[in-house]
UniProtKB/TrEMBL annotation:
Provenance organism: Paenibacillus odorifer
Entry's family note: Belongs to the glutaminase PdxT/SNO family.
Lineage, uppermost ranks: Bacteria, Bacillati, Bacillota, Bacilli, Bacillales
Reactions performed catalytically: L-glutamine + H2O = L-glutamate + NH4(+); aldehydo-D-ribose 5-phosphate + D-glyceraldehyde 3-phosphate + L-glutamine = pyridoxal 5'-phosphate + L-glutamate + phosphate + 3 H2O + H(+)
Biological process according to GO: L-glutamine catabolic process; pyridoxal phosphate biosynthetic process; pyridoxine metabolic process
Quaternary assembly: In the presence of PdxS, forms a dodecamer of heterodimers. Only shows activity in the heterodimer.
Record protein name field: Pyridoxal 5'-phosphate synthase subunit PdxT
EC number(s) recorded for this UniProt protein: 4.3.3.6, 3.5.1.2
């Protein structure tokens, strides 16, 4: 099983290390054609406006929408969550507009207000270690979105079908269980698609 990490900006290497702890192979994705080689995709943190511009420049917007339409799982962390959202608070135009959520950028404040904590995540037995850096929040979710984590009455992890998002950076800790959760999503989807081809 191969999981790609969009390698336009962000902590690509750290995500690949976490992916490989799950037993899957991590692949940095720099070109659209590489999406055909992977079963799932992580869109890492960084600066969402910059990531959006680079995705448009290199043809990733339509390619990742097609990837999602095939049912292949996508995991957006921090800025990656903003990139996946259908709506961005304040009227800023969206990017992929795939997940039925409204997000607020930098909702936790500036870089110096970064912090770590342990969070309960629905579907994971023990609390997960989370690093928040200029993190966004989910303000609203559509009816098909499953809220996985609430922190101080704010939604910070959610899932909608094949789409998973977190406000925080799971790749910046030694706790890879959220990556394992995503890898399990990818493996389940892969098995279903293989059975449908038989």
């Amino acid at each position: 099983m191969k999981i790609g990490v969009l390698a336009l900006q962000g902590a690509v290497t750290e995500h690949i290390v976490s992916i490989e702890k799950t037993g899957a192979e991590g692949v940095p994705i720099k070109w659209v054609e590489q999406l055909d080689e992977v079963d799932g995709l992580i869109i890492p943190g960084g600066e969402s406006t910059t990531i959006g511009k680079l995705m448009r420049k290199y043809g990733f917007i339509e390619a990742i929408r097609d990837f999602s339409n095939q049912g292949k799982p996508i995991f957006g962390t921090c800025a990656g969550m903003i990139v996946l959202a259908k709506r961005i608070a304040g009227g800023e135009p969206g990017h992929l507009e795939l997940m039925d959520i409204t997000v607020a950028r930098n909702a936790f404040g500036r870089q110096r207000e970064s912090f770590e904590c342990d969070l309960e995540v629905k579907g994971i037995d023990e609390p997960v270690r989370a690093v928040f850096i200029r993190a966004p929040l989910i303000n609203e979710v559509g009816p098909g979105v499953d809220v996985l984590t609430v922190y101080n009455d704010e939604i910070v992890t959610a899932r909608e079908g094949n789409l998973l998002v977190s406000s925080f950076h799971p790749e910046l800790t030694n706790d890879f269980r959220l990556h394992q959760y995503f890898a399990d999503m990818v493996e389940t989807t892969r098995q279903v698609q293989q059975q449908n081809r038989i």
